[in-house]
Automatic annotation (TrEMBL):
Chain positions with 4-aspartylphosphate modification: 54
Domain Response regulatory: 4-121
Stated name of the protein: Response regulator
Parts forming coiled coils: none
Organism in which the protein naturally occurs: Alkalimonas mucilaginosa
Protein backbone atom coordinates (compact mmCIF):
# COMPACT_ATOMS: atom_id res chain seq x y z
CA UNK A 1 0.00 0.00 0.00
CA UNK A 2 1.74 3.15 -1.19
CA UNK A 3 0.49 6.41 0.24
CA UNK A 4 1.20 10.12 -0.07
CA UNK A 5 2.60 11.34 3.25
CA UNK A 6 3.50 14.87 4.31
CA UNK A 7 6.23 15.16 6.97
CA UNK A 8 6.59 18.54 8.69
CA UNK A 9 9.71 18.76 10.85
CA UNK A 10 12.21 21.57 11.50
CA UNK A 11 15.06 19.29 12.64
CA UNK A 12 16.89 18.19 9.48
CA UNK A 13 18.20 14.90 10.93
CA UNK A 14 14.74 13.87 12.15
CA UNK A 15 13.18 14.89 8.84
CA UNK A 16 15.70 12.89 6.81
CA UNK A 17 15.25 9.80 9.01
CA UNK A 18 11.45 9.83 8.73
CA UNK A 19 11.56 10.41 4.96
CA UNK A 20 14.10 7.62 4.49
CA UNK A 21 12.07 5.13 6.54
CA UNK A 22 8.78 6.00 4.83
CA UNK A 23 10.27 5.83 1.34
CA UNK A 24 12.55 2.82 1.74
CA UNK A 25 10.60 0.60 4.12
CA UNK A 26 7.10 1.78 3.31
CA UNK A 27 7.54 2.64 -0.38
CA UNK A 28 5.48 5.79 0.22
CA UNK A 29 5.63 9.07 -1.68
CA UNK A 30 6.81 11.68 0.84
CA UNK A 31 6.48 15.46 0.75
CA UNK A 32 8.24 17.67 3.30
CA UNK A 33 8.07 21.06 4.96
CA UNK A 34 10.20 22.55 7.73
CA UNK A 35 7.64 24.73 9.52
CA UNK A 36 3.90 24.90 10.08
CA UNK A 37 3.20 27.65 7.56
CA UNK A 38 4.96 25.77 4.76
CA UNK A 39 3.36 22.54 5.97
CA UNK A 40 -0.16 23.94 5.73
CA UNK A 41 0.54 25.24 2.23
CA UNK A 42 1.98 21.86 1.18
CA UNK A 43 -1.04 20.05 2.65
CA UNK A 44 -3.38 22.24 0.58
CA UNK A 45 -1.31 21.68 -2.57
CA UNK A 46 -0.78 17.92 -2.23
CA UNK A 47 -3.80 16.73 -0.20
CA UNK A 48 -1.79 13.84 1.29
CA UNK A 49 -3.18 10.63 2.77
CA UNK A 50 -1.42 11.27 6.09
CA UNK A 51 0.38 14.16 7.80
CA UNK A 52 3.16 13.69 10.35
CA UNK A 53 4.06 16.91 12.14
CA UNK A 54 6.46 18.05 14.79
CA UNK A 55 4.73 19.84 17.64
CA UNK A 56 7.31 22.57 18.29
CA UNK A 57 8.27 24.39 15.10
CA UNK A 58 8.95 27.96 13.99
CA UNK A 59 6.32 30.22 12.39
CA UNK A 60 3.34 28.00 13.31
CA UNK A 61 3.51 25.22 15.89
CA UNK A 62 1.88 21.84 15.48
CA UNK A 63 -1.09 22.76 17.66
CA UNK A 64 -2.11 25.65 15.43
CA UNK A 65 -1.33 23.60 12.34
CA UNK A 66 -3.61 20.70 13.30
CA UNK A 67 -6.43 23.09 14.19
CA UNK A 68 -6.17 24.77 10.80
CA UNK A 69 -6.05 21.44 8.98
CA UNK A 70 -9.14 20.20 10.82
CA UNK A 71 -10.97 23.44 9.84
CA UNK A 72 -10.25 23.00 6.12
CA UNK A 73 -13.04 21.00 4.43
CA UNK A 74 -10.61 19.55 1.88
CA UNK A 75 -8.12 18.46 4.57
CA UNK A 76 -10.12 17.66 7.71
CA UNK A 77 -10.41 13.95 6.86
CA UNK A 78 -6.61 13.49 6.77
CA UNK A 79 -5.13 11.78 9.85
CA UNK A 80 -2.49 13.98 11.51
CA UNK A 81 0.18 12.45 13.76
CA UNK A 82 2.31 14.47 16.15
CA UNK A 83 6.00 13.92 16.74
CA UNK A 84 7.18 15.24 20.09
CA UNK A 85 10.18 15.05 22.37
CA UNK A 86 7.91 15.32 25.41
CA UNK A 87 6.93 12.09 27.09
CA UNK A 88 4.90 13.70 29.86
CA UNK A 89 1.34 12.28 30.11
CA UNK A 90 -0.21 15.76 30.21
CA UNK A 91 1.56 16.67 26.97
CA UNK A 92 0.24 13.54 25.27
CA UNK A 93 -3.29 14.36 26.42
CA UNK A 94 -2.90 17.93 25.13
CA UNK A 95 -1.77 16.56 21.74
CA UNK A 96 -4.86 14.37 21.37
CA UNK A 97 -7.20 17.10 22.62
CA UNK A 98 -5.72 19.51 20.06
CA UNK A 99 -6.93 17.28 17.23
CA UNK A 100 -3.99 15.01 16.46
CA UNK A 101 -5.02 11.44 15.68
CA UNK A 102 -1.94 9.96 17.36
CA UNK A 103 1.67 10.71 18.21
CA UNK A 104 5.24 9.44 18.19
CA UNK A 105 7.82 10.21 20.84
CA UNK A 106 11.28 11.39 19.80
CA UNK A 107 13.61 9.85 19.15
CA UNK A 108 11.49 7.78 16.81
CA UNK A 109 12.05 4.02 16.77
CA UNK A 110 13.14 3.12 13.22
CA UNK A 111 12.14 -0.53 13.78
CA UNK A 112 8.48 0.31 14.36
CA UNK A 113 7.94 3.77 12.83
CA UNK A 114 6.63 2.70 9.41
CA UNK A 115 4.41 -0.06 10.81
CA UNK A 116 2.90 2.31 13.40
CA UNK A 117 2.40 5.00 10.76
CA UNK A 118 0.65 2.60 8.42
CA UNK A 119 -1.95 1.78 11.09
CA UNK A 120 -3.28 5.31 10.56
CA UNK A 121 -3.37 4.82 6.80
CA UNK A 122 -5.63 1.80 7.25
CA UNK A 123 -7.91 3.88 9.49
CA UNK A 124 -7.99 6.54 6.80
CA UNK A 125 -8.86 3.82 4.23
CA UNK A 126 -5.97 4.59 1.88
Amino acid sequence: MSARILVIEDNQANLELMVYLLQQLGAHQVFTATDGVAGLLMAKQQCPDLIISDVRMPNMDGYELVQRIKQEPALQHIPVLAVTASVMPEERQKILQAGFDGYFSKPIEPESFVQETEKFLVKGKV
